[in-house]
Amino acid sequence: LNGPEMDPGYWFASLRETVEFDRAISILGEAGHGVFVESSPHPVLTGAIGDAVQENADAVVVGTLRREDGGAERLLTSFAEAYVKGVGVDWAGILGGGSTTDLPTYAFQRRHYWPQAHAAVTGGQVTEGDADFWAAVEGGDLDELATALNVDGGSLAKVFPALTDYRKRSRVDATVADWRYRITWAPVAESETLLSGTWLVVGTGADAESVATVLAERGAEIVTAAGPEGIDPDVADGVAGVISMLALDEASHPAYAVVPAGLMATVELIQALGRANVGAPLWVLTRGAVGTGPGERVVSPTQAQVWGLGVTAALELAGRWGGLIDLPAVLDARTGARLATVLADGGEDQVALRSRGILGRRLERAGRPVVRAEWTPRGTALVTGGVSGVGAITARWVAERGAPRLVLTSRSGPAAAGVAALAASIAASGTAVEVISSDTGDRESTGALLAWIDATGAPLSSVLHAAGVTGGKPVEEVETADLAGLLSAKAGGAAVLDELTADRELDAFVLFSSGAGTWGSGGLSAYGAANAYLDALCDNRRARGVAATSVAWGLWAGIGMAASEGGDRLLDYGMDGIDAERGMRALGQVLDADEGAVAVAGFDWAQFVPTYTFRRPSPLLSAIPEVREILAAEAEAGAGVGTGGSELAERLSGLSVGDQRQMLTELVRGHAAAVLGHEAAGEVLPQRAFKDLGFDSVGAVELRNRLSAAAGIRLPSTMIFDYPNAAALADYIRGELVDAGQAADGADQGDVVLNDLDRLAAALESIEGGADVRQDITERMQTMLSRWLRGSTANDESAAGATGRQNVAGQLDEASADEVLDFINKELGGS
Fold first, then answer.
1. Residue 392 and residue 395: Cα distance in Å, rounded?
2. Residue 831: pLDDT over 60
3. Residues 414 and 460 placed together within one structural domain of the fold
């Protein structure tokens, strides 16, 4: 297109008609076009374009600018991306002069600089016949539709208005259909697996005693502690797992009434285990915190807060977190066996034990809702937190839905910024509006507010609870005051509103929850606890026969956390921002269908899944088709890529060990520098820890993907945690390319192990930690060496040799950290 074709009529048609982007790109590709440049402030279509032309291996797909990187340097980089893929670029024209110079003819080291484009998941296409049919419906032409269907127009007259209305609603609803999710529960296979080792049960009372008894019957050796303060580091050291019964305590914390004692005790237990260097997984038990299906009521929204905290703890403490287990009312022998199954297998980390079996928590697509009646408030609608952010957006939308009166509350009330303009815009729509200063979490203040609403106008008919405070800390830093601050307005306010409106027949009781309480988010454990309470309260209210809806929102565009400095980074983790128009459209669907707890979020699964599952797998996401496809593709790639055909492995085969290490270290440094945005590999020192260089989980995934492509092997997503710097990671890659290839060719396994020990020695030299870290490593290696030497005595060795090895083991058992590391350097090739 030259440009003039894109007049207002073009854009009007673009909004109303099927775009058919995939088909358009496919036709262009079939016509011989091989270069596609997306000119935009951030590449959002390159993945879809690449998917459409994937059969053409020579196709080039590049962007131009990127979010927060929209200057000349980024544009030149994009030109360079196209150039290295074979696209002609007029560099003199771009740069204002100069000439090109051929590369030197001598050999040089080849390195890859550009990441591979990731294909996006695209939907199906609309056939030409379907398009004609719906075009007739949308156009309101009854005769044309009758002709298309070859029927009499009179027979269509009665259904035609309904078809037209359905099509309009369908087109509108389709824009948010993929944003709708809900929690379900799937059966998990049972087994007769027995426990082994020592298990620490933390808690007091009959429940703790019952759990200890049933686990002992299933093979566990049990030690107990009354609470976090009673954990003996010597006893906890070496336990196979920790079982916490602390969350069952629903009493209020003595200093902060809004904080459940069991929730805070769970936080303190996590912190105490960290201080004691207990690496065993922590399993937190609740009772009645979740509902697993129709007819099962959430008995304890209070305990549900532990689930909201736990899903974030799983992301932050991947190696130390076991999971969440909800118990039935009675812990009998059968339930005890199921509990032992979950603990022993460890594959499910969010489960409910019920009479019908073990149930695993799943996030599933909710599908399109069935509209019962369009929701319209009859009387006064109360919107808490309604003067800013999502609350203000909701207030305007409720007015558009025909509410005769709106009452908006916040702690700042009429003094909040922008209130006058907000109130004026609502009043202009014909809705009476009042802005009140009120703390929703304060029972007396909220009670007075409801009484005032009833006395001054139309009685209260709808509650939309959007009040809340965002922010948080890692779970290991959370204090009681932090919990109180985050729970007060959101969870505390919901509890107060639930109590004070229990005897009212409301049109709606809407709770604005967050995905932080559903799937978790790093640093938001306390915030997640507050939001999990809302979802559980919704289920509890509906079981009681009163109105309730809870929407766990994903990331809003330009609001709340998305408006902060890290907002764009949150988008990079794989969540699309929810705009006001489509967010309210989704809310309207939920209320029109009278749904309970629903999640609304825009996931970019191709980006979200590798980041979310970076440090541990997630059964929670296993029911999403796109997630299964992504994980299956990763598994297939990992299983299908060998070392025999690796170009890099062939290049390494002719080099000395030292040259191999140098080449791979430079490879790692170069890609790490590119991911971090450095101009040269020299910015990444070989021995400097990745965590100190600024790598987060998104960067780690990108580095893994780049190095996997460069090496021709599938590298683990946790590699920068397992191999903390460029030198150590290069040694690991060398082992996968060279040593694994030698083993596959029948090389002596002892040589492979010795090479592994060389890499271990290199990694030990780069350790940056104090005495505690060195002692932990020493103890692990003492155990490993003792087992190896004890096992060696069973072989047909000479008695003298066996005795000598046993003497070494005995010396190592008594050695200090420095002595063991010195032994490794001298005896295992480290010096």
1. 5
2. no
3. yes
